[in-house]
Amino acid sequence: MLQGTGSDVGKSVLVAGLCRLFANRGLAVRPFKPQNMSNNAAVAWNDQAGEWGEIGRAQALQATACRVAPSVHMNPVLLKPQSETGSQVVVQGRVAGTARGRDYQALKATFLPAVLDSFARISQGADLVVVEGAGSPAEINLRVGDIANMGFARAAGVPVVLVGDIDRGGVIASLVGTHAILPPADRAPIHGFLINKFRGDVSLFDEGLAAVTRFTNWPSLGVVPWLPETARLPAEDSVALDRRAAPEPRPGDLVVAVPRLPHIANFDDLDPLAATPGVCVRLVRPGESWPREAGLVLLPGSKATIADLTALRAEGWDRAILDHHARGGRVLGLCGGYQMLGRRINDPHGIEGEAGETAGLGLLDIETRLLGPKTLAQVKALAMDGTAFPAYEIHMGRSEGPDRLRPFAIVAGRPEGAASADGRVTGTYLHGLFTGDRWRETWLSTLGVAPGGRSHAGEIEAALDAIAARLETSLDIAALERIARAR
Question: Which helix (H) or strand (E) holds 190?
Answer without folding.
Answer: strand 190-198
